[in-house]
Amino acid sequence: MSRPKEPRRPAPPPGLLIVDKPAGMTSHDVVARARRIMGTRKVGHAGTLDPMATGVLVLGIERATKLLGHLALDRKTYLATLSLGRSTTTDDAEGEPLAGNDAASETLAAVTDEQIADGIAALTGDIQQVPSAVSAVKIDGKRAYARVRAGEDVVLPPRPVTVHRFDVLGVRREEDRIELDAIVECSSGTYVRALARDLGAGLGVGGHLKALRRTTVGPFTLARARTLDQLEEKPELSLDLDAAVAAAFPRRDLDAATAKAVQYGRRIPAAGIDGTYGLFAPDGHVLALASDTEGVTRSVVVLLPA
């Protein structure tokens, strides 16, 4: 006799998971585990974290994956440990030391706190940053790290980024290194390991990133994040679809007639709201993401069609 089929697990409701990513996992690894935990293939992430990094990773579940490309996640905060005295092939602790690049102990001892502060000041504000060679930046359609692994000599052009805050929280001086604990608030696309590299280069001693923890991504913080083990025990959303849009976008509440028009794909008068915003029905459910163009509101993503 054939075994009876197990009842199919119902799809989870749409929304966001705010995960506290552990060290040693890629963002794709986290997505794969979240798919198993939540019982759906429809899981995506907004913005990667390097395997060595921990902290906030935003995942979209079911229809909420449509939000990911529209989330304003352009401001991020990190707790970082920077190690001065050695450069590595990857600008972080996972890379190999660059030959002949270790600073002598007397050279390190000569680096003053004032010089460190000046170096940090030069890397704060609107700057031009060369991404790490092993970054995910694409060159002619191929990731830079893939070209490096293939043996290519990769030199990336500098690009504009903004470091809103780069504050030292503590300094530890050892014979072979100076370690800085810092808080970095920066724009999307900023590489904290490139900041460590450039600070060390500016001081003439080399540098790399020893540890990194992301504490905020846009409006999402560690306070709402849960570990994968916690999700295993209690697989539920951090924010349902309505709460996710309300947290991440400006809100426009509609009357019943206007809400119906939106659900049927009709245009409605503009609201005068800048950028992308959420359209909410009288019952509080989000209908769509929209933006104003030429005096009318157009749906960018329909989330609850008629």
TrEMBL record:
Identify the keywords attached in UniProt to this record, alphabetized. Answer: Isomerase, tRNA processing
Q: Where is this region: Disordered?
A: 1-21
Report the residue ranges that make up the tRNA pseudouridylate synthase B C-terminal domain in this protein: 193-233
Q: Which residues constitute the catalytic centre? A: D50
**For this protein, what reaction is catalysed?**
uridine(55) in tRNA = pseudouridine(55) in tRNA
* UniProt GO molecular function: RNA binding; tRNA pseudouridine(55) synthase activity
* EC number in record: 5.4.99.25
* UniProt entry tagged with the keyword Isomerase: yes
Domain tRNA pseudouridine synthase II TruB subfamily 2 C-terminal: start-end pairs: 249-303
Q: Which residues form the Pseudouridine synthase II N-terminal domain?
A: 35-192
Q: Carries keyword Isomerase?
A: yes
Q: Which InterPro entries match?
A: PsdUridine_synth_cat_dom_sf (IPR020103), PsdUridine_synth_N (IPR002501), PUA-like_sf (IPR015947), PUA_sf (IPR036974), tRNA_psdUridine_synth_fam2_C (IPR015225), tRNA_psdUridine_synth_TruB (IPR014780), TruB_C (IPR032819)
List the GO biological process terms. mRNA pseudouridine synthesis; tRNA pseudouridine synthesis
Q: Which family does it belong to?
A: Belongs to the pseudouridine synthase TruB family. Type 1 subfamily.
NCBIfam families according to UniProt: TruB
Question: Which PANTHER family has this protein been placed in?
Answer: PSEUDOURIDYLATE SYNTHASE TRUB1, TRNA-PSEUDOURIDINE SYNTHASE
Question: What job does the chain carry out?
Answer: Responsible for synthesis of pseudouridine from uracil-55 in the psi GC loop of transfer RNAs.
Q: What is this protein called?
A: tRNA pseudouridine synthase B
Q: What is the lineage of its organism?
A: Bacteria, Bacillati, Actinomycetota, Actinomycetes, Pseudonocardiales
